[in-house]
Write a structure and sequence with these properties.
This protein is of the alpha+beta class and about 60 residues long. The chain has one helix and two strands; from the N terminus they run E-E-H.
Length: about 60
């Protein structure tokens, strides 16, 4: 468990623990079955991060 300011915010787990490999396999099967292409450029086309950076103005 990773803690910041006294609050847990992440957990590090082995890929062999807690069924993580099975969860990844199930996700891969579901993506294939539903025809979802994660390699396509359009999958993130409508997602935009408006977080101000030093290079952009905060409007």
């Amino acid at each position: 468990m990773i803690v910041e300011a006294g609050q847990p915010f992440a957990k590090i787990a082995s890929a062999k623990s807690e069924g993580i490999l099975e969860a990844f396999d199930a996700l891969a099967i579901r993506l294939f079955d539903e025809g979802i292409d994660l390699e396509g450029d359009d999958i993130f086309a409508k997602i935009r991060d408006d977080t101000p950076t030093p290079e952009t103005l905060c409007l």
